[in-house]
Specification:
- Helix 6 packs antiparallel against helix 14.
- This protein is globular.
- It is 35% helix and 17% strand.
- It is of the alpha/beta class and 455 residues long.
- It has 2 domains: 18-195 and 367-386, NAD(P)-binding Rossmann-like Domain (Rossmann fold), CATH 3.40.50.720; 208-363 and 397-418, Dihydrodipicolinate Reductase, domain 2, CATH 3.30.360.10.
- It has helices at residues 23-35, 66-77, 92-105, 123-129, 143-152, 167-182, 197-207, 231-238, 244-250, 256-259, 262-265, 268-278, 367-380, 388-407, 413-418, and strands at residues 57-62, 82-89, 117-119, 133-136, 156-159, 187-189, 214-222, 284-290, 305-311, 317-323, 331-338, 341-344, 349-352, 358-359, 411-412.
- The protein binds nicotinamide-adenine-dinucleotide (NAD).
- The site of nicotinamide-adenine-dinucleotide (NAD) has 26 residues, from helix 2, strand 2 and helix 4.
């Protein structure tokens, strides 16, 4: 069967002031918008305000790593009317490698001379100013700065998840999201399951009542440990000592201010799917976690496992696990239990009492390509698409879960969102110090449940 790709909801949520929002306000203002947030825009019709003037859309890439490079290629895959004109990265070696890969794939759509290659912490500002559309694909700690600037400059945005690593950054993204909506900017956040036909059809059937009311959910990202950049190897390669800032930037996965911990960096995908099914965000969370095996100076300050019970306003529970421990049971998936049946959302299977099992059998186009197909179609044809607010609130879900596991306390959504705990360094410069520093033994302090301050 063929899944109909629906246009985004035309319902624009009312203007919100994120700093004074209650959770109820969030649900009220986002649920209508999110009804269509699975969306993938219709490919015909609409008014072309770029094509009509025969403009080529100028694209900039900020954060030229694995995902940014792939996202730029996907953006250029959407058609000849898109050209990559500027790139920015903290490090020149990352930018050079990325440029080559993109140019090899799309030689006629890349025009990034030396004077539009920008390096360092402030590089994003110049790259954004050279473009109509920007891809923000640095690690998430920088997203609030970058998204705010893109919106300030009136640019359309594709930004990767997560969109912040702490509540102060998150509130800035919510404010910029609101501004972007007012200014008719098109924004897509890289939560690609919402652009995946099998997910869309499965969630639609659940929303249509296929398994009754949802009473519980399970979300997993139990998998492999990602890459690690050891200080000794980095220094050998560089032929010099690295500053602490440079080391943490190169080995960013293991530092909360840049990465947010893997409950945020990876598990957000699964949490977002359950939020999508529920049509809202949890009201509280409690959980446990720690660092059992991934220890040592090269592994920074994050946990290697988290278990969280998230509770939604109707009392239903999402059990969430994420783990990076070798030789354990692995699963990256989402499941829900309803009053009339169950769904394995990841495998797109629905089992309901008295009804034959349903399994999605339609198209399975790469959802990360679809994200760009939709974004550029919406830009070129002035159709609405803006998933920034949902990206922010699913990021907040993961931040609340992290607060629960680090502290061992029950955390309420409103207090989590209002938290002023800011993980970012006072100053971003190669010789400035991040807030988290190694002790004399080279080890970083790992949050201790029962003691850690998280609000
Ligand atoms: N949607 C998905 O499935 C998916 C998959 C992979 C990664 N991601 C997300 O994409 C983002 C990037 O991940 P990645 O795997 O490409 O990491 P990466 O390390 O390969 O790339 C990040 C790049 O950003 C650069 N960078 C870091 N700080 C910067 C700054 N302040 N200004 C400019 N450049 C800066 C780094 O030098 C690096 O080149 C993360 O948010 C990650 O969660 C999403």
């Amino acid at each position: 069967m063929h899944t109909q790709i629906m246009p985004p909801s035309s319902t624009t949520p009312k203007t919100v002031n994120p700093t004074s929002l209650t959770r109820r306000d969030f649900l009220r203002t986002t649920s209508t918008a999110l009804a269509g947030a699975s969306v993938v825009g219709a490919m015909a019709g609409g008014q072309s305000f770029f094509a009509a003037t025969e403009n080529t859309l100028k694209l900039a890439l900020v954060g030229c790593g694995g995902r940014g490079t792939a996202a730029a290629i996907q953006a250029l895959n959407t058609g000849k009317s898109v050209k990559l004109v500027a790139m920015a990265d903290a490090f020149d070696d990352r930018l050079t490698g990325s440029l080559k890969k993109i140019a090899d794939k799309h030689p006629t759509q890349v025009d990034v001379p030396k004077d539009r290659q920008f390096f360092g912490f402030d590089s994003y500002k110049q790259a954004i100013s050279a473009a109509d559309v920007v891809i923000l694909a640095t690690p998430p700690g920088f997203r609030p700065d970058h998204f705010e600037e893109a919106v300030r400059q009136g640019k359309h945005v594709f930004m990767e998840k997560p969109v912040a690593t702490d509540a102060p950054g998150l509130r800035r993204v919510l404010a910029a999201a609101e501004e972007s909506k007012k200014n008719n900017l098109k924004v897509v956040v890289g939560l690609q399951r919402r652009f995946q036909a099998g997910y869309i059809e499965t969630v639609k059937r659940i929303h249509d009542g296929a398994i009754g009311d949802i009473v519980s959910a399970r979300a997993y990202w139990n998998g492999r440990t990602p890459w690690v950049k050891k200080r000794a190897d980095l220094e050998k390669e560089a032929g010099r000592k690295l500053t602490e800032m440079e080391y943490q930037m190169r080995n960013w996965y293991y530092f909360v201010w840049i990465c947010g911990d893997h409950i945020l960096e990876q598990h957000i995908h699964n949490l977002d799917v359950i939020n999508w099914v529920k049509g809202g965000y949890p009201v509280r969370a409690q959980g446990m976690g720690g660092c059992q095996v991934r220890k040592g100076p090269d592994y920074g300050e994050i946990f290697d496992h988290h278990f969280v019970e998230f509770e939604y306003a109707d009392g239903s529970i999402m059990s969430s696990q994420c783990r990076h421990i070798p030789d354990c049971w692995n699963s990256v998936s989402e499941h829900v239990v309803g009053t009339k049946g169950t769904a394995n959302i990841t495998s797109h299977i629905i089992r309901a009492t008295g009804v034959e099992e349903w399994k999605y059998g339609g198209e399975s186009k790469d959802p990360q390509q679809v994200e760009h197909d939709v974004l550029f179609d919406c830009i070129l044809n002035n159709k609405p698409i803006n998933t920034a607010e949902n990206g922010a609130l699913s990021t907040m879900t993961a931040i609340m879960g992290r607060m629960a596991t680090y502290s061992g306390q029950k955390i309420e959504w409103d207090e989590a969102l209002a938290s002023n705990l800011n993980y970012m360094p006072e100053k971003l410069a190669w010789d400035a110090l991040p807030k988290s520093l190694p002790g004399p033994d080279g080890l970083y302090k790992i949050p201790m449940p029962g003691q850690a301050e998280v609000l």
